[in-house]
Amino acid sequence: MKFLKGTLTTNHDVARNRKNLRFGAAILVSASLALASTAVSASTASAAASGQLIIANAEPISAAYYDPHSAFGLVDAQLGSLVYDTLLVMDKSGAVSPSLASSYKRVSKTEVDFVIRTGVKFHDGSALTPADVVASINRVMAAGSPLAFALLAAPGKATAVGNTVKVVTEKPYGALESALAVLAIVSSDDVAHPDNWKVKPNGTGPYVFVSNKNNDITVTENTSYWGTQPLTKTIILRYIEDTQARQSALLTGQVDISTRVGPQEIAGVKGNSDFNVYSNMGPPSQIIQIWRDSGPLKDPALRRAISYAIDRKTIAAVIGGGMNAVAFNGMPTNMPFYKPAAEHFAYNPSKAKALIKSLGYYGKVTLTMSTSSLVPKQAEIDQAIVGYLKAVGIAVKVTQLEVGKFRSTYPDYDISLNTIATFDNDPSFSLGLYAGGIGKAIFGWSDPKMDALFAAQRDDAGKSRAAKVNAAQTYLWNAARTLWVSDENWVFIANKRVKGYERSPLVGEALIVKASV
């Protein structure tokens, strides 16, 4: 077994070193030099694609249909990154460079201009135009957009002038470049006729959608791709819910890569030279226990009391195998501008019990919890939390669900374990999950003060942004808006026959064109 990107005992050092690689550059007004494209045309590809790569996931696709701007899960992002392209692309270090944009420049604090690449076609044969780019961006920038990817945007508008698309935000938005390394460019016809996405995705990317059946999503190489031709002909995203079955499929060669594995799976390939273990393979991410803002949990005093009842350090060390850092504020520890809060809510069951008794909840509350196998060691984490709460007079009724059902019904339960990954490697995405319509949808929570704090940090592209990010994350933390169990270090295991596999600090597989089997 070979470890890549460092050992698991030092994995957070790698992630922390990454956290400001591009953030500062993105917010500088002086970054006005147009960047030349480094894309390689399809005609220069050195070898024809061959072989089949199967990626095993613990979750199914979660979007109701193939709209990439509605994506909110790992498999959604995987498929989107294979089928669609973005204006910019992020490499494994977090640096961005042109993709569908042949060049770009930051004109001012509020404007970035993109020259759109010519000769690019969607999979249905229609040509990519600046109008498609404008429609894609404005769709998520629209005020009150219900799309998940609205978290990547700030209020503003895109317009086309000839072959240049000008993206102008109402206020400075330093994360625009990183956001546009994630935002899929779609056909304006699909924007006008969204039912098209109920049939199949239609992008300009290196892979073409083939089918979604029997828990397999299959894509094949786009032989007319404008950029670097992929080395692997066919990729299958396979949903295997059961952890042991997923590991068995990996060990027996039925799949090539297993994503977001836990300590038990890593131990299962220890000393086995047939496999490589890749650490830190994802974006800043957290394991959280979602607390719905209803019933007893609507009381922030109870949420704070419960926070003292749960030994997060022991959960991370014993159940999580020491893979994940424990945060002491409302963002992952490897997020730009993370700063521990003064109050750590350190494990103190006596204090928790006393507070719960003083609030009149002791022995009088039964919370509902849904559980599944979405998160590594989820059953064990959930049972630990149930035990900790029982010890301080809070009962929990647990319902076991299949992953797909779990993901679509968590608002029906008081508490449910989940993960929050930051799609664009920027604090706005993480903090935006608790603000506006997204916060209402996830937590049932609406808080004008949080909305204002979120907007204040998003709209600051200067040195003062760090303090504003800290104000927002600390407000969430002190309100005990959720239980931040730990960070989640994304660890993947790959068969050694997979060569050249790389990932950027994003959710999808935008760099998999370099991989071969």
Automatic annotation (TrEMBL):
Pfam family, any one: SBP_bac_5
Gene Ontology molecular functions: peptide transmembrane transporter activity
Sequence ranges assigned to domain Solute-binding protein family in this UniProt record: 96-436
Coiled-coil regions, chain positions: none
One GO location term (cellular component): ATP-binding cassette (ABC) transporter complex
BP term (GO), one: peptide transport
CDD domains in the cross-refs: PBP2_NikA_DppA_OppA_like (cd00995)
Keyword line: Signal
PANTHER family cross-referenced by the UniProt entry: D,D-DIPEPTIDE-BINDING PERIPLASMIC PROTEIN DDPA-RELATED, PERIPLASMIC BINDING COMPONENT OF ABC TRANSPORTER
Protein name: Unannotated protein
Taxon lineage: unclassified sequences, metagenomes, ecological metagenomes
